[in-house]
Design a protein that fits this description.
- By secondary structure, the protein is α+β, with helices and mostly antiparallel strands.
- The chain has helices at residues 45-52, 56-61, 64-78, 94-101, 141-144, 166-182, 208-215, 265-270, 274-289, 294-304, 333-348, 370-382, 398-401, 408-422, 429-441; strands at residues 41-42, 111-120, 128-136, 151-156, 184-188, 193-197, 200-205.
- The protein folds into three domains: 41-205, no CATH class; 217-309, no CATH class; 333-441, no CATH class.
- The protein is built from 15 helices and seven strands.
- The strands form two sheets. Strands 1-4-3-2-7 form a five-stranded mixed β-sheet, covered by helices on one side. Strands 5-6 form a two-stranded antiparallel sheet.
- The radius of gyration is 25 Å and the shape is globular.
């Protein structure tokens, strides 16, 4: 890989002597022969799947998908084709059920999720790296996300962010494509026989920043930034370039291309099916790649929300959920980081705003008074002895630490656990009621 983490020397880049992004030499000039300056690591998924079946217990633990779908189909038969139980897992998805009905997923095939993210290994120095993993959806939800059941796929050394993520993950995906097409022989210890598995890739997960490069999209701040390519169009401020997913049209707002009316999400989403999404995606992608010059390409990127085809489109269609339905929504960051990071600075009077705005007029900024904010922080800290140890990490005093290093679990306990009580009588009543409704929903 590039010494500066730009690219992995794979595929069309394999024979280059220098990085096409930064110009750094691939091989160490201080050694004779071709000695790479830096390497990344891929752990093929196939052998890891085989190992899961080597014990009777391991094989039986992988029967969740079959049991769940059989139970669901029985429910439909008993209720005239109508569902009565609540949705609870990926196997409730109509896309997955269709794949099972069409035998794209057979009883011998395993269902996978791919996930990639950056990780900082040390808090005191530059140490970022990127890791991608495989989640085996055939395990029951209670165990599939535990560390021992997560399978590592590859590691990309840092400390810099990759500039071509595809060049790193293509090794693992090429291996996946091979076993999807040719089949993977597995020994089932519970049945004491060999069967052939063609893994089905049902989901690809990443945060908003990490998904865009591998999905071929402009990202969440684009005009059409939806990762599943719904028709929602964002809005930007006058003379701004960052688009926001503003459902309602702001008052006295007349920015060309952004001044459409309020968006009814219920109506939009009821019409947004996988079939409609793929049709729109295919049409927009064809429009993009037919751009006659760079200027037209950039203009079409803005309009379509795409920058090119996704590497996941290269996997066998029969054994992969279609792009863009393959890309799952990022729900985790919404309550853990995004919502608290919006509300608390608003209440604290520290939220970024236009120069024409005056924070002192914010009726909701009840924590702007340093004495009130300090007292609230102390009450949060005083609650620590009463929080069960099983709740993982109690929130530190936010008045001392919230601006640097406040963890997701701390945000959860502070905002959704302690806040509704500790802020009652401090926030204006209408603001508190609005806050409490959000907490209750989550």
């Amino acid at each position: 890989m590039c010494y500066n983490s730009c690219v992995g020397y794979t595929g069309l880049l394999a024979d280059l002597n220098c990085c096409p992004k930064c110009g750094q030499e691939q091989y160490d000039p201080l050694h004779t022969g071709k000695v790479p300056q830096k390497q990344f690591h891929t752990i093929p998924i196939g052998p890891q799947l085989q190992v899961l079946w080597w014990t009777s217990k391991g094989a039986k633990d992988l029967g969740y998908c079959k049991e769940y779908t059989e139970k669901f189909l029985k429910e439909l038969r008993l209720n005239g084709g109508n569902r009565v139980s609540p949705y609870s897992d990926i196997f409730d998805s109509s896309d997955i059920l269709k794949a099972i009905a069409h035998e794209d997923i057979t009883c011998d095939d395993m269902v996978l999720m791919f996930s990639i993210d950056g990780a900082q290994l040390y808090c005191s120095k530059a140490s970022d790296c990127w890791i991608y993993i495989w989640v085996i959806m055939d395990h029951a939800p209670g165990v599939r996300y535990k560390n021992r059941y997560i399978l590592p796929g590859g590691f990309i050394g840092g400390p810099n962010k990759p500039k071509n993520t595809d060049s790193y993950i293509c090794v693992g995906l090429s291996h996946l494509a091979a076993i999807q097409k040719e089949g993977l022989q597995i020994w089932d210890a519970s049945r004491r026989e060999i069967f052939v598995c063609r893994p089905f890739l049902a989901a690809v997960g990443a945060d908003a920043v990490g998904l865009a490069p591998i999905a071929g999209t402009v990202g969440h701040n684009g005009k059409s930034g939806c990762r599943v390519h719904c028709p929602f169009v964002g809005r930007h401020k006058d003379k701004g370039t960052h688009y926001y997913s503003a459902q309602l049209k702001p008052t006295n707002f007349s920015v060309k291309g952004c001044d459409h009316g309020d968006v009814d999400l219920n109506a939009l989403l009821s019409a947004h099916t996988t079939k409609a999404s793929k049709a729109k995606y295919d049409k927009d992608l064809a429009f993009l790649i037919q751009a006659p010059n760079k200027k037209q390409y950039e203009k079409r990127c803005l309009e379509t929300g795409l920058v090119g085809p996704s590497i996941f489109s290269g996997l066998p269609a029969k054994h992969t959920l279609s792009v863009p339905a393959l890309f799952v929504l990022d729900i985790m960051h919404l309550p853990n980081l995004f919502i608290p990071d919006l509300f608390i600075p608003l209440w604290h009077g520290t939220f970024d705003c236009n120069k024409t705005d005056d924070r002192w007029n914010w009726t909701w900024a009840a924590l702007a008074d340093p004495a009130v904010w300090k007292a609230h922080g102390q009450r949060v800290a005083d609650a620590t002895p009463y929080i069960p140890g099983s709740f993982d990490r109690p929130p530190c005093n936010p008045a001392e630490k919230i601006s640097s290093g406040y963890k997701a679990w701390e945000h959860l306990l502070h905002f959704f656990g302690l806040g509704p009580v500790l802020l009652h009588g401090i926030l204006p009543n209408n603001i508190w009621e609005n806050y409490y409704k959000a907490v209750r929903v989550f």
